[in-house]
Write a structure and sequence with these properties.
With about 325 residues, this protein is of the alpha+beta class. It has eight helices and 17 strands. The chain has three domains: about 100 residues, no CATH class; about 80 residues, PDZ domain (Pdz3 Domain), CATH 2.30.42.10; about 90 residues, no CATH class. Keywords: Membrane, Transmembrane, Transmembrane helix.
């Protein structure tokens, strides 16, 4: 009887394991029609976001890199964004003859976060860059896309010693210097590579890209295939794993009216029959264990409900501070 009543736990457990295996084998099962490992395929772009626009990302684009960080999977995409979020802004090797004095573009001023702004014309194509010249910090307002085209990343001027640019006006090779975007705190300039399109330039907080773009590891081999099919299958498997696994764990808790009650009863009968010979004593031990398990489960449910309600009530109170 106890075994038959605990079959629900095993059904959920088997279903969870089956969905987990299917999830891991999905690249193999879909290999004839979908391939992986070439990059992260864009399946959705939030309209009006920083990733949207004529030179932004589009559905069907294959992202292969964020600056010098290669992207082969969605996990690489998230990892690269995390790296760029928690590391200083990278620099770029640009020819020295293109650096113009900052006063040529207007007044240099300091922002509230102490960063420097030298492009005071509110241009959408120019950006303020800082660089070291004769042990002093200099600033220059440069056209971003033109300057970054073909340039490699750097951390200091030493990284640009072997990197030269061809000066078409004088037909000579000009030395390069490492310039770093002068941006506000937590703001980054990131180049996204998605061939054969032109590199996308993103200026903002890197995690915003994670919310603006949805990607998948699966790229269709044929044009008529749906981009969202692997995503739907992955999501379905994850839901099955989460729900079935949670039901199996909850039902296994020694609590009144759950399968764990009968599992505990069978366990006590199998292990304590030689230690505690009196059946009433065994039932009393089982009762207290069930009571403790029920209290623990009830406390977890109450804590979860309290956290949900507290989170919902905190938002209006915070907003009212600015009323």
């Amino acid at each position: 009887l106890s075994l038959s009543r605990s079959l629900g736990v095993w059904h959920n457990f088997v279903l969870c394991v089956a969905a987990l295996c299917f999830l891991f084998l999905l690249p193999v099962l879909l290999f004839p029609v979908y391939y992986t490992g070439a990059g992260a395929l864009v399946t959705e772009v939030v309209q009006g976001s920083a990733a949207d626009g004529p030179r932004g990302l589009s559905i069907g684009d294959m992202v292969t890199g964020l600056e010098d960080c290669d992207v082969r999977t969605v996990e690489d995409w998230n990892s690269c964004l995390t790296i760029h979020t928690h590391t200083p802004q990278t620099g770029y090797c640009v020819p020295t003859h293109t650096l113009q004095p900052s006063w040529a573009h207007g007044r240099v001023y300091r922002r509230l976060d102490t960063s420097i702004e030298c492009c005071s014309n509110n241009s959408l194509t120019d950006l303020c860059f800082s660089y070291t010249k004769l042990q002093e910090m200099e600033y220059a307002c440069l056209p971003v896309r033109k300057m970054l085209s073909g340039s490699r990343v750097c951390r200091s001027n030493a990284d640009c010693l072997t990197h030269t640019h061809l000066d078409k006006d004088h037909d000579t090779h000009s030395p390069s210097v490492c310039v770093t975007p002068s941006l506000e705190n937590q703001t980054r300039l990131i180049r996204l590579t998605h061939p054969p399109n032109t590199q996308m330039l993103f200026v903002g907080y890197p995690p915003h890209l994670q919310y603006a773009v949805s990607l998948t590891n699966f790229a269709p081999r044929f044009g008529f295939l749906n981009l969202d099919l692997p995503v739907v299958m992955e999501t379905f498997c994850k839901y099955v794993v989460s729900l079935s696994g949670a039901l199996a764990v909850v039902n296994s808790v020694p609590c009144f009216a759950l399968d764990g009650q009968w599992m505990l009863s069978a366990l006590l009968e199998a292990t304590l029959v030689t230690v505690v010979t009196d059946r009433q004593h065994r039932e009393l031990i089982g009762f207290f264990l069930l009571l403790g398990g029920s209290a623990l489960l009830a406390a977890n449910v109450a804590l979860g409900l309290w956290m949900v309600t507290a989170r919902n009530t905190m938002v209006p109170s915070v907003l009212c501070l600015y009323c």
